[in-house]
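Quick log. Single chain, no ligands specified.
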Amino acid sequence: MHQVPIKERMMKTKGTLNNEIKNLIIGISVLCGISFAVSLFWGFRLDYLFGTIIGLLFSCLNMSYLAYTVTRSAGMSQQKAKRYLSTNYFFRYLVFGIIFAISVYSKYINTIAVTLPLFFPRLVLAYNLFILRKEEK
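-> predicted structure:
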């Protein structure tokens, strides 16, 4: 039985992961655009626009950083990988907490618009899993 070398498997996985991240970013961007368009029914608000942009950027960077940390932890021992992933998990949510706190206290950033894009990756992944995979069959 022929076994593919680990470096070759990692390169294939990295390419697939980059495709998934690209699709996630596109999906998150589309959903943020829809969210902002829906908010226009209540009138244009600059704070919602700023919140949407900040939420979009954080959500995209959060997913990219998650992919990076998971990929990097694949080559570590189990104990070291657990510690590394836990630390980065804490760091990502600490950054979100800071952004959320700033949005709560700032009158120029809408808190809902910052928080809403954090749910969009789950929606995009669910759409990809249930809708697009069924179309491929």
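Helices lie at 6-39, 46-73, 78-105, 111-115, 120-136.
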